[in-house]
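queue> pop job 88
queue> type: inverse folding (structure -> sequence)
queue> payload:
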């Protein structure tokens, strides 16, 4: 599901991929208006499935972070108000959800965006993040036999 949810640089919120046009993608905003607009190749578009968070050991896929948030919040929207929270409160919140996040490379603005995206997804009924973490057939490139 996260593969079809897009973030577009310079545009607020999240968008769902609806269709592909001639030289654009047709996206629908995940807000109350559900407006459909084209997104062009000049826009910086990224799928949520391609995003990861920095930790002290490795990068953790966004789906795992969102799943941790869902467990912490019991499937409801975030209890923290990301607009009014201080930088320390944001870091403490993410520390609960992702204890070993890299405090040098994950900025307060990243945490705010994460919480905002989580709330948008939950409000739109998109909450099955665990399925995004399941490897699909062909994902393992180490299946080759040694010679």
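queue> result:
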């Amino acid at each position: 599901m996260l593969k079809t949810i897009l973030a577009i640089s310079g545009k607020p919120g999240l968008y769902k991929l609806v269709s592909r046009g001639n030289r654009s993608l047709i996206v629908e905003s995940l807000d109350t208006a559900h407006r459909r607009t084209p997104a062009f190749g000049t826009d910086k578009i990224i799928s949520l499935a391609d995003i990861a968070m920095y930790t002290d050991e490795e990068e953790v896929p966004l789906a795992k972070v969102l799943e941790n948030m869902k467990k912490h919040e019991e499937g409801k929207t975030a209890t923290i108000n990301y607009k009014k929270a201080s930088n320390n409160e944001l870091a403490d919140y993410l520390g609960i959800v992702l204890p070993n996040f890299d405090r040098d490379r994950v900025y307060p603005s990243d945490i705010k965006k994460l919480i905002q995206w989580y709330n948008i997804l939950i409000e739109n009924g998109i909450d099955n993040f665990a399925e995004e973490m399941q490897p699909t057939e062909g994902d393992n490139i180490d299946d080759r036999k040694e010679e």
